[in-house]
Amino acid sequence: MREIVHISTGQCGNQIGTAFWETISAEHNIDGSGRRIVADHPAAAAGTYSGDVHANDKLDVYYSQSGSRYVPRAVLVDLEPGTLDNVKSGPLGDLFRPDNYINALSSAGNNWAKGYYTEGAEILEQVMDVVRREVELTDSLQGFQMTHSLGGGTGSGLGTLLMTNLRDEYADRMIASYSVFPSIDSDTVVEPYNSVLALSQLLESTNETFCLDNHAMYSIFQRNLKISQPSYGDINKLVAQVMSGVTTSLRYPGELNSDLRKLAVNLVPFNRLHFFTVGYAPLFASAAKKFTNLSVPELTQQLLDGRNLMAGVKPTTGKYLTCGAFFRGNVAVKEIEDEMNKYRARNSNLFVDFIPDNVQTSLCSVPPKDVDMTATFVSNTTAISQLFERIHGHFELMFKRKAFLHWFTFEGMDINEFTEAESNIKDLMSDYLQHQDNQFIPDEYEKYDDEEMIQEGYADEAEAIGA
Ligand SMILES: Nc1nc2c(ncn2[C@@H]2O[C@H](COP(=O)(O)OP(=O)(O)OP(=O)(O)O)[C@@H](O)[C@H]2O)c(=O)[nH]1
Ligand SMILES: [Mg+2]
After folding, report:
1. What gap in Å lies between CA 467 and CA 459, rounded to an integer?
2. Where is the Tubulin/FtsZ GTPase domain (predicted)?
3. Closest ligand 1 atom, residue 110 Cα
4. Rounded to the nearest 5°, which phi and psi values hold at 203?
5. What is the residue with the minimal CA distance to atom 6 of ligand 1?
6. Is the pLDDT of residue 50 over 60?
7. What CATH class does 2-274 carry?
């Protein structure tokens, strides 16, 4: 089996992580205590049992089995106890392994340096021990996924420290992150600092990062779902739907993108350019739901509409390097392929021309709960640089005046680290833009040799291409 170990870090990471586990557990008919809802379960009598559709679910990927219980392969980490206490006393409190909750006593106070260098570093080994124990429970680990925010101190600082350590210790395994970017009008001034410092780490440590922008998600609620003041709970449900969509191919049988590595091979043409935007459909206000009878063309149209993306970028001003549309429900493969091909043909200027077959489609016949048909869109678009530009713009304004830096230097950080992180992000933006503007200079890219690919976690690919 190809197992994935999940790690939630910090408040946002744990709130989103819990929403993810709630969603996929419901999809796989697993109740709050880890029991599978099969025909003789009390809930089955109430009509929650959806029978043999789930007989082939790849449960081992995300759950280990302990007697008759399914236990999430999940580690829950925070520097303060509050969020984890809420998880423990919530509906999923008994689902997670009790030893896998790890917290310290006080938060990183929105300070990346506290998460990465001081308070976080103190509990690093404790967390790694639990992660190692989870890895020992696997047969053939495919990798890790982390949920965290970039704007705070724990998810951002300790989260990236953990991923750097995982990258060292499990060099040839995959690391995926679901990273929440701060909204423009967030309450905490230093979020751009934390985000740039964290992003600079993600460049090196993850193989795939799904960029979830709180700003764009607020707008989706206000514009598409007609909810003017969405709560974190509302937003996290949407994130969980997206994560469920992205992980569908990992959790149900099928050929395409059946593990994290295959997904990355299809979506990441250059090692550093692994930051994805995601879209989801259908998205409509609940009042409009009963008037909406979705067809595949309508679903596809919604899916590819830039306003449904979870990152505040305009895909029509960039170019897609690669993308994938993952459908679920009772639809014909031919119909979705035709729709996607039509879109690709009509908008050929939106796709780079050096990757001929850069649009993938896949179908899983099992829909999520309560909807007949959904689709998730994962794209590697050069437009993502607009998100980095926004965060960097705010970083630059403060950094020019060295505002708030003492909070970070007080934890032992050197100002050069800020300069270096900033320059990494600028390089990343220009890497994306050179593909957008067709200014690719081949000599700058040397062919990978065997050693380098193995070091960067691409051992299987190195072997496949005979490097
Ligand atoms: N979407 C979403 N964003 C959240 C949630 N909780 C916090 N955030 C965002 O995350 C950022 C703050 O980070 P937190 O996750 O609260 O911080 P932390 O990782 O716990 O770190 P410290 O509290 O500083 O130790 C801000 O940009 C918040 O808007 C959540 O449940 N959902
Ligand atoms: Mg916190």
Report:
1. 10
2. 59-254
3. 24
4. -55, -40
5. 12
6. no
7. alpha beta
Where do runs of H (alpha helix) occur along 158-277? 159-169, 191-205, 214-223, 232-251, 260-267
pTM of the shown model: 0.92
Query: Looking at ligand 1, which atom is closest to the CA of residue 13?
Result: 15
Q: Residue 232 Cα, ligand 2 centroid: separation in angstroms? A: 14
- What confidence tens digit (pLDDT) does each residue in 346-380 have? 999 999 999 998 999 999 988 888 788 999 999 99
Nearest CA to ligand 1 atom 27: 182
Report CA(388)–ligand 2 centroid distance (Å).
23
Q: b/e map of 383-419 (b: 16 or more CB within 10 Å)?
A: bbbbbbebbbebbeeebeeeeebebbeebebeeebbe
3-state per-residue secondary structure call for 287-341: HHHCCCCCCHHHHHHHHHCHHHECCCCCHHHCCEEEEEEEEEECCCHHHHHHHHH
Taking the CA of residue 79 as reference, the ligand 1 atom at the shortest distance is 25
Q: Which ligand is nearest to the CA of 87?
A: 1
Query: Residue 331 — left, alpha, or beta (φ > 0 → left; ψ -120 to 50 → alpha)?
Result: beta
Query: Which ligand minimizes its atom distance to the CA of 16?
Result: 1
Question: What is the tens place of the pLDDT at every residue in 178-200?
Answer: 999 999 888 899 999 999 999 99
Which residues' Cβ are closer than 6 Å to ligand 1? 10-12, 15-16, 79, 107-110, 149, 151-155, 180, 182, 186, 191, 214, 232, 235-236
pLDDT, one tens digit per residue, over 408-450 is 999 999 999 999 999 999 999 999 999 987 655 554 444 445 5
How does DSSP classify residue 398?
Answer: H
CATH number for domain 387-466, candidates 3.40.50.700, 3.40.50.1390, 1.20.58.100, 1.10.287.600: 1.10.287.600
CA distances, 421 to each of 169, 206, 340, 361, 390 (Å): 23, 16, 38, 36, 15
Residue at 409: amino acid letter: T
- SS3 assignment, position 38: coil
**Domain spans in the chain, listed from the N-terminal domain onward:** 2-274, 387-466
Ligand 1 centroid – CA 158 distance (Å): 13
Paired tokens of 43: 């809930």
For residue 324, pLDDT over 70 is answered with yes
Residue nearest to atom 5 of ligand 1 (CA): 12
Atom 17, ligand 1: which residue's CA is nearest? Answer: 152
Nearest residue (by CA) to ligand 1, atom 13, is 152
365 CA distance to ligand 1 centroid (A)? 35
Tokens of 42: 């009390």
Residue 208 has pLDDT above 90, yes or no: yes
**Distance (Å, rounded) from C-alpha 10 to C-alpha 152?**
8
**Which residue owns the Cα nearest ligand 1 atom 16?**
11
Rounded Cα–Cα distance for residues 433 and 357 (Å): 21
Q: How far away, in angstroms, is 313 Cα from ligand 1 center? A: 21
